[in-house]
Every structure is written in structure tokens, then in C-alpha cells.
From TrEMBL:
Subcellular localization(s) per the UniProt record: Secreted
Entry keywords, A to Z: Secreted, Signal
Organism listed in the record: Neolewinella lacunae
Domain SD-repeat containing protein B span(s) in chain numbering: 75-175, 223-325
Bias type Acidic residues, positions: 1-12, 360-371
Gene3D superfamilies, sorted: Immunoglobulins (2.60.40.10)
Compositional bias of kind Polar residues: 25-37, 333-345
Chain positions covered by the region annotation Disordered: 1-64, 146-167, 181-209, 305-371
Cellular component terms (Gene Ontology): extracellular region
Coiled coil: none
Name of this chain's protein: SD-repeat containing protein B domain-containing protein
């Protein structure tokens, strides 16, 4: 910063300099105290100037102009969270923070408006909160190096306004990172957060020296699965009281994705994105899926080449019912209808009571994101 001559008797100006750099002792220049010649009341009008005013003699024998100015530092932080309803806002008991997510801070050190120099790295705490402090005034952005574990995409709703405490700020980049827009940190002028969102209180001791609005929302991975079973009475329902209607092991199951969102599986989409086989109980499971429209196909077992004649709507969330149909006839792939996987809105424990229904029950977020 700017240093005044300590012997110029000017009050309210910085007289210190840090020759050793940030965090080191700030030293004034050498100054001389001369009896009867030191600045008096009219020249010592800034705070601290009246300390030698007990009588005229003391005032003329004291110098109350040796001041030191220090530039306050800034901070930035807030939350990385599961955005279950894809609205860009962390709200509700199920929209919890994501722990142990790496977070990077970049600064614009050359003044070109683009923060390209890595100046800080941290990870989110158990509540998904992150925090960087001791930052000089400048232009910054926050980056998540890759999608956090258990997520498939950023929230569809975002804001490039760094003062918006409600809406998340992350945008996926071409290199696979997720970054906020550049924002300025200026001590004394940073936003005051009053929304009660997670992480907002990290700068409460120096509210206007911190920006706690840079949040990142992510859509959780989706999953789908259940059972391929012998429908002995051909009624389209797995009868758990009938010992003959058990799951069929070793059956090939294909998963198809409507990549262009046109409501059909066609063209290149006719190639399965994943394939698995049923386990010993006839159960299958696909996970780490992005939200969207899917179709499941089953290649029938040789001892049961014909699909049940009764087909349910695959998107009705009814467990234990046959969702497949064989348009090509006996022995061909049995295909479900198209169904939509929507974050936070898939059937949970009470709706998935048949075999295979517990495959997504690892935690509440996984359960309501799996069908």
C-alpha cells in the first residue's frame, strides 16, 4: 500500500510498510520526537489524536500521527449439495450436502478478467460446506474438478449472479469441470446473506468481507432394476405365495436410453447402453444413470420363451408386475415401455416390496432416485 513519511506529522495516513511481505511486521520510517515541536490538537484530528491532550505542554511533546493501515482480507464459500428436484436451490431435508468433494479456487492475477491461477484447494466437510479465507481483493472463480461421486449432472437451474444466495452457480465445462462464473471479492462490499442457507454463516464475524453464495447443486445418479420371474399362471403378477413363480437366473437384460429426448428408442439408441444378467434370484440392477427416459429389454430364458400376456405400464411404479412385451413373438426380446427416471421422485421402500426392490435402499437419496 501507500506509505507516508512518519516524520511529516500528518494524521490519519498509513506510516507503515511490510518489507518482508504479507503477514510480516509493518514498520514506520524513522521519526524524531522534539520537545515542544510535536503536532497539537488541530493537527491530530483522527482517532487516537487526543491521547496527549491533557495539557498544552503534553500536547506539544507528543506525536499522535503515527498510524498504520491494513487491508482487510476476504473469504468465499458455501455448499455443494444434492439438488433432488433440479430447481437449483438447496431446500428440504432430503437435499443434503455432499461430503468430501474437492473444491478449487482460481484467481485473476494478471488482470485480464479470467481467473486462471490456482490459489486454493479444499474439500467439503460432512455437511457439504467449503470455505476459503485470507483472500485479497480481486476476481475469482470456484471450480469442482469433476462430478462428485453419486451424481450424474449439475442442476439444470443455475445463476451467474455471485450475490444470489438461493440459486446454485455451477456450470459444466467442456473439460469436465464444474465452475462458477468469475466474481469480484472486495472487502466491505461483499454480499450480506440472509436466506438461512447452509454455509451462509461462515463469514458472520465479518459479513461484508465474505461471499457465502457460491453454491453447487448436483443431480444424484439414478438407478433401475427388479426381477425377471416365471409367471406360471400368466396373469402378469409375480405371486409370492406360489413357489413356482420364482426369479429366473442368468437372463440377459439390456438397458436403452432415449438420448435425444424424442420419446422413442430408435436409430443409434437401439444399441443398449448397458447389459447385465440376472442374479441367482432373478434380480437385475443398473445404476450410475443420468435422469431421463429409458427402456429395459429382456432376452427370455430357453425354458420360458414367451412373455406374460399381460403388460403393465413401465412408468406406473407398480412392483411385481410384468412390464415387458414381445412385439417380435416367442423367443424375441421382451421390451418394457419407455419410463422416466426423475431425481427424488422414484418409488421408495413401501412401493418396492417385491423381490429386487431393495437394491437401491442404501440411503434415502439412493432410494428415491431408483426404480
Amino acid at each position: 500500500g501507500t506509505q507516508s513519511d512518519a516524520d511529516d506529522d500528518l494524521d490519519g495516513t498509513n506510516d507503515g510498510a511490510q518489507a518482508g511481505g504479507e503477514g510480516t511486521e509493518s514498520l514506520s520510517g524513522l521519526f524524531t520526537l522534539t520537545p515542544g515541536q510535536e503536532p497539537q490538537i488541530g493537527d491530530e484530528s483522527f482517532p487516537g489524536g487526543a491521547q496527549d491532550d491533557t495539557d498544552p505542554q503534553d500536547d506539544a511533546n507528543g506525536n499522535m500521527t503515527i498510524d498504520f493501515g491494513f487491508v482487510p482480507v476476504n473469504s468465499v464459500g458455501s455448499s455443494v449439495f444434492f439438488d433432488m428436484n433440479d430447481d437449483g436451490i438447496q431446500m428440504g431435508a432430503n437435499e443434503v450436502g455432499i461430503p468430501n468433494v474437492p473444491v478449487q479456487l482460481f484467481a485473476d492475477l494478471d488482470g485480464d478478467g479470467t481467473p486462471e491461477t490456482l490459489v486454493g484447494e479444499t474439500t467439503t466437510n460432512d455437511d457439504g460446506i467449503y470455505f476459503f479465507d485470507n483472500l485479497p481483493n480481486g476476481t475469482y472463480n470456484v471450480v469442482i474438478p469433476s462430478l462428485p461421486d453419486g451424481t450424474g449432472a449439475t442442476s439444470g437451474t443455475s445463476s451467474d449472479d455471485p450475490t444470489d444466495a438461493a440459486v446454485q452457480n455451477g456450470e459444466e465445462q467442456l473439460d469436465g469441470t464444474v465452475a462458477s462464473a468469475p466474481f469480484d471479492l472486495t472487502a466491505g462490499s461483499n454480499p450480506t446473506e440472509a436466506g438461512g442457507f447452509p454455509g451462509d454463516d461462515q463469514d458472520d464475524a465479518e459479513e461484508t468481507n465474505g461471499n457465502m453464495t457460491i453454491d453447487f447443486g448436483f443431480l444424484p445418479n439414478m438407478s433401475v432394476g427388479s426381477t425377471v420371474f416365471y409367471d406360471v399362471d400368466d396373469n402378469g403378477v409375480q405371486d409370492l405365495t406360489n413357489p413356482l413363480e420364482y426369479g429366473i437366473a442368468g437372463v440377459t437384460v439390456n438397458l436403452y436410453f432415449d438420448a435425444n429426448g424424442d420419446g422413442m428408442i430408435d436409430g443409434l439408441e437401439l444399441t443398449a447402453i448397458e447389459t447385465t444378467t440376472t442374479d441367482a434370484d432373478g434380480n437385475y440392477f443398473f445404476d450410475n444413470l443420468a435422469p431421463g427416459d429409458y427402456q429395459v429389454g429382456v432376452l427370455p430364458a430357453t425354458d420360458a420363451p414367451v412373455a406374460s400376456s399381460t403388460q403393465s405400464d413401465a412408468d406406473d411404479d407398480l412392483d411385481g408386475t410384468n412390464d415387458g412385451a414381445q412385439a417380435g413373438g416367442e423367443g424375441t426380446e421382451s421390451l418394457s415401455g419407455l419410463f422416466t427416471l426423475t431425481p427424488g421422485q422414484e418409488p421408495q421402500i413401501g412401493d418396492e416390496s417385491f423381490p429386487g426392490g431393495a437394491q437401491d435402499d442404501t440411503d434415502p437419496q439412493s432410494d428415491e432416485n431408483g426404480n
